[in-house]
Amino acid sequence: MQALKTQRKVLRTAFTLCIKNIEAKLQGEIAEAEEFSLLQVQLKDKFQRLEDCQQSIAASLLQNEGDESLFELDFVEAEKYRDRFSEVMLHLNLKLTEKVVPIDPLPPKRNFKLPQLQLKKFNGDARDYLAFWSQFQKLHADPDIPNEDKMQYLIQVVEEGSKAERLVQSFPATASNYPKAIQQMQERFGRDDLLVQIYVRDLLSMVMKTATTGRMKISLPILYDELEGKLRALESLGKTQEKYGDFLTPLVESCLPEEVLIAWERSRSNESETKNSRSLSDLMAFLQGEVRSEEMVLLA
Q1: What is the pLDDT of residue 211?
Q2: Angle between helical axes of 192-213 and 220-236 (0-180°, round to 10)
Q3: DSSP secondary structure code for residue 115 in this structure
Q4: Whole-angstrom Cα distance, residue 67 to residue 100?
Q5: Is there a contact between 241 and 283 (Cβ–Cβ < 8 Å)?
Q6: Which of 65, 145, 181, 207 could form a disulfide with 254 if both were Cys (CB 3.0 to 4.6 A apart)?
Q7: What Pfam families does UniProt report for this protein, alphabetically (predicted)?
Q8: 158 - beta bridge partners?
């Protein structure tokens, strides 16, 4: 019995030293997965030899009927080592899982402060509705903001003295009235058919302006930016170039300066007969190239 107790003492010391070594490695960040695997194997080996020795001592104590109290004390002491083994093995397994399946790192923290976004005020001009709604829609769709607060935000973003303010102020500022106010805003300023008419009429007004002022007095970069903005607005409303290109292309052509229109017709004549080179996308790509060429000439 004494020989077994001496052996157990030595095994417990080795087990404790192994535990301390593992805890030191767990607290650091240098050790690799292979090193943790090796420590796990070593810990299992030391615990198994300690457990075998402990079982021999327990069996010897049970053989003596008068040693029940000694067996109980010895068992309680042995349980501390078993619990310690289970705890450290859990930490090792978690560490190995972390090494094998790396977690995506957090995005780097900005070392600068972004300026605070200001909500765009809406003055009731339907031309500005898309820009206004694209920003306010984020607030509108946020489920964490109660409707009474959304109503107050809506009151703040309409321009003072505008048609939009008169419409919003016609509703008492309550949570139940917020969806009604938004619906009326959409009906009054954000209907697709209304916006399409506005942007098409703007294109027509550009044609009329070209006819009255003369083709030679138009700045191509400014004209291109205006055309691109209106066409993008129509596209955002679902009026794609593929569906409405045949209708819009003649309008855009009528806005062009004379020399640009001649160059466009010349480029079309050089295209293959099998290619539909009169599409709106081809025309806008041609204008983009002309704008770039004009800007390069100005830099020369």
Answers
A1: 64
A2: 160
A3: P
A4: 49
A5: no
A6: 207
A7: DUF1759
A8: 122
pLDDT average, residue stretch 269-290: 71
| CA-based torsion, 108, 109, 115, 121: positive or negative | positive
Q: Which of 118, 117, 195, 129 is nearest to 162 (CA)?
A: 129
Question: Which single residue is written with the structure tokens 């539909």?
Answer: 276
User: Is 178's pLDDT higher than 90?
Assistant: yes
Local confidence band at 146 (pLDDT 50, 70, 90 cut-offs): very high
- H-helix or E-strand containing 246? helix 241-255
Answer yes or no: are the C-beta atoms of 57 and 8 closer than 8 Å: yes
Report d(CA 218, CA 256) in Å as an integer.
8
Cα separations (Å) of 148 from 82, 152, 163, 178, 199?
Answer: 59, 7, 22, 7, 34
User: In this structure, how many other beta carbons lie within 10 angstroms of the beta carbon of residue 179?
Assistant: 13
Rounded Cα distance, 254 and 166, in Å: 39
Of 268, 290, 288, the C-alpha closest to 278 is 268
Closest CA to 136 of 178, 174, 196: 178
CB 65 within 8 A of CB 44: no
Tell me the pLDDT of the chain averaged across its residues: 80
User: Is-contact 123 159, C-beta < 8 A?
Assistant: yes
Task: State pTM to two decimals.
Answer: 0.48
Q: Which residue has the tokens 């002309």?
A: 290
* Pairwise CA distance, residues 61 & 67, whole Å: 6
Contact 283, 249 (CB under 8 A): yes
